[in-house]
Amino acid sequence: MTRSGHEASDLSVVLDADGAFDPAWLKGKSVAPLAAGSRLDAALAHRMTAGCRAVGASRVMWAPLDVDEPVARSSGLPLEAATLNVRPPSLLWTPGLEGAILFPASGYVLAAGTAPFMASAVGEGIDEARTRFARYARTRADQAPELNSVAATHASARRAWSKPADVEQGSAAARQLELLGQFTEGDLSARSFAQRWWEARRASQADGERIRGPLEEVFDQVFMLLEDYEVEPDLAEPGDLSDMELHAAVAELWNRFSSR
User: Taking 50 as the threshold, does the pLDDT of residue 246 lie above it?
Assistant: First the structure.
């Protein structure tokens, strides 16, 4: 490992005065938030190693940011997290400044860089990484509410779906549409429809899927109908919808929407 005061000047290129990625450096690059613990772990070290190799770098630069005059350190590849013991706030970057991982606080890091760097460092894809981070932030909302603002700043670019033709195949929302068709056609019992709809709805929310416009209205109305339906007949109360009533209401709703 080497130390270099000269390469510490890279920090002023990558970061602004507030310790965030400098907009000028970010031009032409993308950013993805990633879950992290209280120190750089093996998974993050692997990401940085992959990003470096993708841009032809043979080493990684890194520096702590909680000192008045940060000193850049250099480490060969593969990056060994246990050896470096990198803790926040810190920055890791490629010698050519193609990519970096900013570790501002425990709980998350921000990976940023050129397309080649990000394709390897964030192999799951930037949009998928953002979606996963939003899910992670929701699970940690009580302990670390600040993660929600990070997720909001780097929200998934996935489009919100407003009509059935927009919905991605294999998504939980697509499953909800399939269930609506099966139920209205009489191929699914009311009880099975209700159980599977709730499962698909929870999965859609967990995956960060977004529904808007007419399709959101339909899904919301189905939600309200199912609120008045009891899956277990023995637990049904006066005023709850019967199987036939649920089917009639959902079929009318779906047929009206489909005929638009």
Answer: yes
End-to-end CA gap in the chain: 67
State both tokens at 60: 């990684």
188, two tokens: 């699914």
Residue 57 burial (C-beta neighbours within 10 Å; 0-12, 13-18, 19+): buried
Q: How far apart are CA 62 and CA 70, in angstroms?
A: 10
Partners of 245 in the β-ladder: none
Residue 234's pLDDT is what? Answer: 85
Label residues 62-92 b or e (16+ Cβ within 10 Å = b): bbeeeeeebebbebeeebebeebebebbbbb
* Confidence (pTM): 0.64
Token pair for 229: 């339906």
Is pLDDT above 60 for 3? no
Contact 51, 115 (CB under 8 A): no
Q: What is the distance between the alpha carbons of residues 221 and 215, in angstroms, rounded to a whole number? A: 10
